[in-house]
Amino acid sequence: MSFGDRLAAVFAGRGRLCVGIDPHAHLLDAWGLSDSADGVRAFGLAVVEAAAGRAGIVKPQVAFFERFGSAGYAALEEVLAAARAAGLLVIADAKRGDIGTSVTAYAEAWLTPGSPLEADAMTVAAFQGVGSIAEPLRLGEQHGKGLFVLAATSNPEAAAIQQAVVASGERAGLTVARAIIEDVHSFNQAQPEHALGTAGLVLGATVDLADYGIDVATAPRTPVLPVLAPGFGHQGALVADAPRIFGSYAPGVIVSESRGLLNAGPSGLADAIDRRAEEVRASHG
Ligand SMILES: O=c1ccn([C@@H]2O[C@H](COP(=O)(O)O)[C@@H](O)[C@H]2O)c(=O)[nH]1
Description:
It is a single chain. The protein has 285 residues and is α/β, with parallel strands linked by helices. The chain is 44% helix and 14% strand. It has 12 helices and 8 strands. The longest helix has 20 residues. The radius of gyration is 18 Å and the shape is globular. Keywords: Decarboxylase, Lyase, Pyrimidine biosynthesis.
């Protein structure tokens, strides 16, 4: 089954809320856990337990596990396995990018069935050109895994680069963000049999996509582009605004939130997820 088909099934059955697994040091402290590999393991497993059956998707932020080196990675492996065993779709927020041969090795680590770090999808950066991630995209298609390519990210300091205009080639004159969207869409168009594509985008919920030359009113795309949308909660975006923010991209949007939910603490997290999942359902109809 393709990643897009699996994502469509999650949307239909569990909704489009994605719970971020971001064990910040201050959250570990607030949760009564140590700032250590054991702490991030316990935190991650507790988030998985709270999300299972309430949301369809989780997004571990790899950086918070990487802080603890090999012990942190061992903890992450356990969290990834527990999440997948609980039936959650797992997006590893690893933001990998490099020349083709090296970024392919990253994709093999995160997207190969049976790999210790196996996830259902990963985030990637196309700063070295969307062509550099051609092989990871092919690997994803082969294994039923997804990739989310950074395009218009939620952090304000990215705007200058992502709104810059492409100098040459087929996408000349488009913003970097828009050119990435068009390239990702072209890849998905080669698999028109899927309702949602294998390749997706990261579009922050905090940005005005018009500033990136992206017209959200344009006709819906086929296959629908999966959109990982961080920026809800702590970064200020409101779930109720998602249909307006994303327009024709809304059918593919994954509403991603970390701190806004995790601040509820271990005893309040399940209720916070229930409430947010209901809010997401209500706003997306
Ligand atoms: O554009 C982006 C891409 C990724 N992120 C990541 O999402 C979460 C957001 O956490 P919150 O606590 O909900 O703010 C975090 O892991 C970021 O690295 C993003 O924020 N923006």
